[in-house]
């Protein structure tokens, strides 16, 4: 990593000596769950969410992230920031305004239930960047405790397979019973079994397959 001053700008660069990125894949590196040279259905290190989150934050700040790469030699990512306290303060104001859109009438408060800590944190950040108020927990018990503590929930996002044999469908049913409303829910699953395919039709439930894209999750 290095930092260079260029006139009224500060250029931050992160360089690596990895395998590099082929030119025909540069356009995909900011996609959620995409990793260069790794198929979506194979074992992997990490989740392919880092650059996607960085790109969203960069857009919120009205900046631009550049990348240069050469196969076999590595990659260089660079970001230019205004220098000076006054400019930086003004930029923070712009970012705060952009990151806090007007109130959402039907889904401003999201409860996320995901037992994998890394996936939970990455998904929470994606939702937060989009302006949602997000509470994240790992189990049915924690979800019930959260709705008892907080004012309310507009949207539930839950994984299908949770730890200790819990299912996302159980979380949905329990929270609806606790709140006394047909809570809107998104069920995320990589399960293609009949148990998922034969779930009863529910106008307030959307089932999304893994790997899920942020736009699809937030639609």
From TrEMBL:
Molecular-function annotations in GO: histidine phosphotransfer kinase activity; phosphorelay sensor kinase activity
Domain Histidine kinase: 1-85
First-level EC class: transferase
Keywords for this protein: Kinase, Transferase
InterPro entries attached to this UniProt entry: CheY-like_superfamily (IPR011006), HATPase_C_sf (IPR036890), HATPase_dom (IPR003594), His_kinase_dom (IPR005467), Sig_transdc_His_kin-like_C (IPR004358), Sig_transdc_resp-reg_receiver (IPR001789)
Matches recorded under SMART domains: HATPase_c, REC
Catalytic activity: ATP + protein L-histidine = ADP + protein N-phospho-L-histidine
The enzyme's E.C. designation: 2.7.13.3
Response regulatory domain segment(s): 109-219
Pfam families from the UniProt entry: HATPase_c, Response_reg
Recorded GO CC terms: plasma membrane
The protein's name in its UniProt record: histidine kinase
Annotated source species: mine drainage metagenome
């Amino acid at each position: 990593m290095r930092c260079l001053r260029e006139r009224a700008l500060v250029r931050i660069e992160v360089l690596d000596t990895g395998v590099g990125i082929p030119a025909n894949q540069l356009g995909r590196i900011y996609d959620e769950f995409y990793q260069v040279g790794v198929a979506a259905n194979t074992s992997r290190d990490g989740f392919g969410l880092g650059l996607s989150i960085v790109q969203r934050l960069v857009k919120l700040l009205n900046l631009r992230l550049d990348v240069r790469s050469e196969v076999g030699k590595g990659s260089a990512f660079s970001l230019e920031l205004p220098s000076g306290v006054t400019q930086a303060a003004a930029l923070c104001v712009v970012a705060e305004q952009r990151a806090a859109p007007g109130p959402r009438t039907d889904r401003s408060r999201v409860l996320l239930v995901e037992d994998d800590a890394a996936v939970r944190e990455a998904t929470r950040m994606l939702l937060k960047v989009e302006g949602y108020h997000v509470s994240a927990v790992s189990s049915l018990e924690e979800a019930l405790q959260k709705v008892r503590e907080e004012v309310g929930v507009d949207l539930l996002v839950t994984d299908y397979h949770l730890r200790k044999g819990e299912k996302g469908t159980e979380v949905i049913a329990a929270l609806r019973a606790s709140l006394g409303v047909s809570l809107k829910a998104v069920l995320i699953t990589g399960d293609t079994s009949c148990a998922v395919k034969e779930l009863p039709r529910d106008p307030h439930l959307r089932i999304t397959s893994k790997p899920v894209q942020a736009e699809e999750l937030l639609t």
